[in-house]
Amino acid sequence: MQVRPVVRALFASLHSATAPNRLYHQCSILLEKALPPRRKITEDEISEAFLKGSGPGGQKINKTSSAVQLKHLPTGIVVKCQETRSREQNRKFARQILGEKLDEMEKGGESRTAIKADRARSKKASADKKTRRKYKKLAEGKEAVVGDAEFVDAAANKTTQSEPIEKSVATGIEVPQP
């Protein structure tokens, strides 16, 4: 497990200020395991082409060659990106997408995207479990309240059915006689 450097620096300064008191536990700051590093793609493996874009964005998109098409020569994977009107940003996005596709193709279930999807799935399952537990507890609470109300009603009906009630001389509490 790793700690983000910013968080580490922040809590290191807090720790030095509050060291005698120990107001927090250092282990509670640990974050989840880091993702594997991204695959490096060399320029020799890629053929790059700039195309005229299409779709929304108006005349400027249609006139300029800002869309980027990358082809990974060893595998033949082609990626096209026209997210923005900037050629440089599109190049960056296309390289990221190509790297993710290559990583997924090579590693399968151990790729960055698979790990991210698994983390999201487990986080959602945990949240769903917590929600189910919460509503189950609420339902049990309502049943308990209804059960208590029925018990109180039954007790009230039982005492009003002509049972003589006497006050205890010692405590002053009304007690039904058997």
Characterization of the model:
- The protein is an alpha+beta fold and 178 residues long.
- The protein has 3 domains: 1-34, no CATH class; 43-110, 2-Layer Sandwich (Double Stranded RNA Binding Domain); 121-167.
- The protein contains 4 helices and 5 strands, in the order αβαββααββ.
- The strands form 2 sheets. Strands 1-2-3 form a 3-stranded antiparallel sheet, with helices on one face.
- A hairpin with a 5-residue loop joins strand 2 (67-72) and strand 3 (78-81).
Q: Which properties best describe this structure?
A:
178 residues, 3 domains, three-stranded antiparallel beta sheet, translation release factor activity, Pep_chain_release_fac_I_sf, Mito_Transl_Release_Factor, transit peptide
